[in-house]
Specification:
587 residues, alpha+beta, Helix Hairpins, Glucose Permease (Domain IIA), 6-stranded antiparallel sheet, elongated
Length: 587
């Protein structure tokens, strides 16, 4: 296929620039010692595994120590209560003995008592009986007092022993907590170092850069075969009408919008033996579209923007359809937002079955809740270029066949298309992000779908600062943001990093921490559950890491989100709104 020289140069230059800039080729005798992303991830996991095991062991010891301390504290309280009770019994016995002693026992059958008894009694026998009874009762009460006093001494000794056991258990709990903190510090330090290495591309290209390079190379490969075969050029009009096709070129009803060329055909007749050698020909318009998409790899993402520097997914397709043939400044000019976004594009384009993806196709995504919500341009049957917020720009992504609705063929005859509507929900490129989760101005993704995140610099619920704790009842620093989400709502990673899960982490409940470059750590508390497979793994911005809960010291379902820099809690506004970095609480 003979392409216009400008398109050939553009496609070749894009592939060469992306490939050479990101993946320098070493001399044949050189040894590449840089780990691949897959190998690096395996190396990181291998080093992290024993540290996480140490954390689990330390946490188990801490929980057991906490349990022993709780039991010892309860025993000490019970022992002290018994001491108090026995003190009351001793005091009562002492008073009773004193009363009897004053009445008879300590005075004895003295002459004064005898004379007094004569005055009250008409019988000496009765008098002697009274004196004898008083002596015996007095001796009995005195014995009860001695017993009560001895019992008090015993329970006091038991209380002292219980208090000592409690103190020992408290010290053991503190030691276990310190060991757990040390183990967690090892994990934090290790994951922070890996986060820095990941941010630096592990000595080579990042995953996204490599994907972009592969996309550019894939498109260059698709262009190279027709060029090598000296295939003829076909226009969109030729393909749509089936008229004025070059010799050996045919179109098929089963594959609208593209053509096929048999290099062995003569005078328009296909060579029977060469049927399997037919070359796929993409119309000139399709070639320009895909070339433009590849040339914009790395451009910025911005909702409802249609500029050369920043665009959303609908705008990328719109520009690819209309601008590649423009010259000079016109190719970089701003354009109006695409009417109706992605659904509007889908409604105005001929579509074919989702399993017929060819290079240059426009790939539409759909799901039951969101309708047709995303779009990209295929550079191979399994990779497309799209603008999307989670990566923050125009990038290459594997085509998710589970999400593909239909495939647009810009050069095919247009037919009416029934496009499912979007009902809201998670972020969609084709819907207003004011109602959906999105990237913040500072580049981090908001951790939940709570609509309050969308109000600039307005935090959902309680924000950092001193406050009276709703459960503990006293003033202390609240070092993060609390969101108003409901039980089970999804929680996302705000940025790329290395995740560690912390089950049953005291007042924080089920917690996830993610280490980012330069000592930055994001923390997600009170979760009801963790996403599977994230412990010790590299997570990407926007990846599900857990669900909202009310575990730990929590008054109800919510997410406590916190950011630490070098171990100190800071106000998250810096990372979401580019505000100055400051401590969560001052003073």
């Amino acid at each position: 296929m003979s392409l216009p020289r400008t398109i050939q140069v553009a496609a070749t230059a894009v592939a060469a620039t992306v490939t050479c800039a990101l993946l320098p080729i070493a001399p044949a005798h050189a040894t590449d010692v840089s780990p691949s992303p897959t190998q690096a991830g395996e190396d990181m996991a291998a080093g992290l595994a024993p540290l996480l095991s140490d954390v689990d062991t330390a946490r188990a010891h801490r929980l057991a120590a906490d349990k022993r301390f709780a039991a010892a504290s309860a025993a000490a309280v019970r022992a002290q209560a018994e001491v108090t009770s026995q003190k009351g019994a001793v005091a009562g016995a002492r008073d009773l003995v004193g009363d009897y002693a004053r009445a008879a026992y300590r005075s004895g059958p003295s002459e004064l008592a005898f004379l007094a008894g004569l005055l009250d009694s008409g019988s000496p026998t009765d008098l002697m009986r009274r004196v004898d009874t008083a002596e015996r009762v007095g001796e009995s009460k005195d014995t009860q007092y001695d017993r009560a006093q001895a019992l008090l001494l015993r329970v006091q000794q038991q209380a002292e022993q219980a208090a000592a056991a409690r103190d020992q258990a408290s010290e053991a709990a503190r030691t276990a907590a310190a060991a757990e903190a040390d183990a967690l510090a090892e994990v934090t330090d290790y994951t922070s170092r890996w986060a820095d290495q990941l941010a630096a591309g592990l000595g080579g290209a990042s995953d996204q850069e490599q994907a972009n390079s592969e996309a550019a190379q894939a498109w260059a490969n698709w262009l190279s075969r027709p060029e090598a075969e000296n295939a003829p050029t076909v226009t969109a009009r030729m393909v749509r009408t089936g008229k004025k096709l070059p010799p050996g070129v045919t179109v098929r009803k089963s594959a609208p919008g593209v053509a096929y060329w048999d290099p062995h055909a003569k005078k328009g007749k296909r060579h029977k033996a060469a049927t399997g050698d037919q070359v796929l020909l993409l119309p000139d318009r399709t070639v320009r579209m895909a070339t433009y998409a590849v040339s914009r790899l790395g451009a910025g993402y911005k909702w409802r923007a249609n500029t050369h520097e920043a665009m959303d997914c609908a705008a990328l397709v719109d520009r690819a359809l209309t601008l590649p043939g423009a010259a000079g400044a016109a190719a970089e000019a701003d354009r109006p937002a695409v009417p109706q976004g992605v659904p509007g594009l889908a409604g105005g384009m001929r579509t074919v079955a989702a399993d017929q993806i060819l290079p240059g196709d426009v790939v539409f995504y759909y799901d039951d809740n969101h309708g047709v919500d995303h779009v990209g341009i295929a550079v191979s049957p399994d990779m497309m270029v799209a603008a999307e917020p989670l990566s923050g720009g125009v990038n290459a992504f594997p085509i998710d066949t589970d999400r593909v609705w239909r495939v647009g063929r810009p050069s095919a005859k247009t037919r009416a298309t029934d496009v499912p509507a979007a009902d809201g929900g998670l972020w969609q490129c084709g819907a207003d992000p004011d109602d959906l989760a999105q990237l913040s101005p500072g580049g981090w993704m908001f951790p939940t779908d709570d609509a309050d995140w969308r109000d600039e610099r307005t935090n959902p619920g309680t924000e950092p600062g001193m406050r009276v704790h709703p459960i503990l009842g006293y003033a202390r620093c609240h070092d993060g943001w609390d969101t108003g989400d409901g039980m089970g709502d999804p929680v996302y990673a705000v940025a790329d990093g290395v995740a560690v899960t912390h089950p049953n982490n005291g007042g924080a409940g089920n917690m996830v921490s993610i280490s980012h470059p330069e000592g930055v750590e994001s923390v997600y508390m009170h979760l009801s559950e963790f996403a599977p497979g994230i412990n010790g793994a590299v997570v990407k911005r926007g990846q599900l890491i857990g669900r909202v809960g009310s575990t730990g010291l929590s008054s109800g379902p919510h997410l406590h989100f916190q950011v630490n820099v070098d171990g100190q809690a800071v106000d998250p506004r810096h990372f979401f709104y580019n505000d100055p970095l400051k401590a969560a609480c001052t003073g």
